[in-house]
Design goal:
Blueprint lengths: L4 E4 L4 E6 L10 H7 L3 E6 L15 H14 L5 E6 L1 H12 L4 E7 L19 H9 L9 H8 L6 H8 L2 E3 L5 E3 L3 H6 L1 H5 L17 E6 L9 H8 L4 E5 L6 H4 L1 H12 L1
Parallel strand pairs: 2-3, 2-4, 4-5, 5-8, 8-9
Antiparallel strand pairs: 1-3, 6-7
Helix pairs in contact: 2-3
């Protein structure tokens, strides 16, 4: 699959940023601008998101292979891999499948565990099934504006921050009709796989313990608990943990300056 991507920077180190569920490369532009002095930054749209192709199939093994194919297309022999939330799971499985392609691994506010048993495990995202069902109930082409769609979604998605985030996935086609950039049906059909843990893999090579691995979490986010680091270290024995105070799941948006400072520390 040929993923859509954005590129910034002229640095000697390649950095691939992988967004989370309902996200896109657009979400990371401001962070990439703060890193472009030292890094050549690639922001990809994962399958069924942003401007990347749609597919009925969606699981972490496929999404990890998408990143490998992307690196081959860009002729990248090695890169720092950084993933947030769903993208963090993609990044972890990519590192386990293709360790020799990974320079350093940065996992943002996610653990390699199964999340679907936790209903409303994060207040800010609520129940993903409720969100997806709300999105499926809306045909954007029946509406004239993003605000109108927002009003129609309000009951199913009452959190204003989440609603604003979701509305970024609305595009307008050549006939001026609104549409979802997300492949919501495929996300719905594969939600259990998306919520699944990073447990099934065939490691091509043992991940080098000398390689930097860091999990960065927001202290106000419940996604990564202290005990989760033990599971991370089963796969990546040298993994370190860093906390961003007063930050939730979207730690890079809540505390951008501190996030960049922490990231640069581990990357340089």
């Amino acid at each position: 699959m040929k993923l859509f991507f954005r590129e910034l920077g002229q640095g000697n180190n390649n950095l691939i940023i992988i967004h989370g569920l309902y996200g896109s490369s657009d979400n990371w532009l401001s962070i990439a601008h703060l890193l472009e002095d030292k890094f050549r930054v690639f922001m990809v749209d994962q399958r069924n998101h942003g401007q990347s192709p749609h597919s009925n199939e969606m699981d972490y093994s496929l999404m990890a292979d998408d990143i490998k194919e992307f690196m081959q297309q860009q002729k990248l022999t090695k890169a720092i891999i950084m993933g947030h939330s769903m993208g963090g799971k993609t990044a972890m499985l990519f590192a386990l499948k293709y360790p020799l392609l990974v320079d350093k691994l940065v996992v943002l506010d996610i653990a390699p565990k199964h999340y679907s048993i936790h209903n409303n495990f994060a207040k800010i995202t609520g129940d993903h099934r409720t969100i997806i069902d709300a999105l499926l109930s809306i045909n954007p082409s029946d509406h004239s504006s993003r605000n109108e769609i927002g009003q129609a979604l309000k009951q199913g998605v009452p959190n204003n921050m989440v609603l604003s985030f979701l509305l970024k996935n609305i595009g307008r086609d050549s006939n001026k009709k609104l549409f979802w950039k997300l492949n919501i049906q495929a996300i719905s059909d594969n939600l259990d796989k998306i919520m699944d843990g990073v447990t099934e893999f065939d490691a091509a090579e043992e991940f080098p313990e000398v390689n930097t691995v860091v999990v960065i979490r927001g202290t106000k986010s419940p996604y990564v608990q202290d005990e989760d680091i033990q599971q991370v270290r089963k796969y990546f024995p040298s993994a370190q943990l860093a906390d961003i105070p007063d930050a939730g799941h979207w730690l890079h948006a809540d505390q951008p300056e501190l996030f960049i400072k922490t990231l640069r520390y581990f990357l340089t």
